[in-house]
Amino acid sequence: MTNEKVYAMSFAKVYPLLVAKANKKGRTRDEVDQVVCWLTGYTAEDIKSAAEGSVSYGDFFRNAPAPNPNRKLIRGVICGIRVENVEEPLMQEIRYLDKLVDELARGKSMDKILRRPADT
Fold first, then answer.
1. Three-class SS of residue 84?
2. Using CA atoms, how far apart are residues 115 and 50, in angstroms rounded to an integer?
3. Would you list the DSSP string of 20-80?
4. How would you label 103-120 residue by residue, b for 16+ Cβ within 10 Å and e otherwise?
5. How many C-beta atoms surround the C-beta of residue 35 within 10 A?
6. 59-105 residue pLDDT tens
7. Which of 30, 40, 47, 67 has the most CB atoms less than 10 A away?
8. 8 A C-beta contact, residue 68 and residue 38
9. Residue pair 57/103 in contact by the 8 Å Cβ criterion
10. pTM of whole model > 0.90?
């Protein structure tokens, strides 16, 4: 699938898949929302509106009100790709969310998922 196809997908179609992945492992929609809010700066209400609307996945990230600067601390592999090495910025944002939801589904604590610089 090309990046443009991913960007054009409806957030309303992707979001339930993220929630389902977390739910299968005993995590909640609220926890998914917490991760999305941390990453993007959206509120839970913003996420709900986007999930009920027609915003594209790409626009959801392009229009993020306050991308968390600590998102650059996200490292690791998702779908066989190291997120820190993704060259296209928008795709990297999408992979960051994939990685965070994956960590949530794997049972990682929220303290570890929501990165903070080592010196704090």
1. helix
2. 25
3. HHHHHTT--HHHHHHHHHHHH---HHHHHHHHHS--BHHHHHHT-SS--GGGGG--SEETT
4. bbbeeeeeeebbbeeeee
5. 23
6. 999 999 999 999 999 999 998 999 999 999 999 999 999 999 999 99
7. 40
8. yes
9. no
10. yes
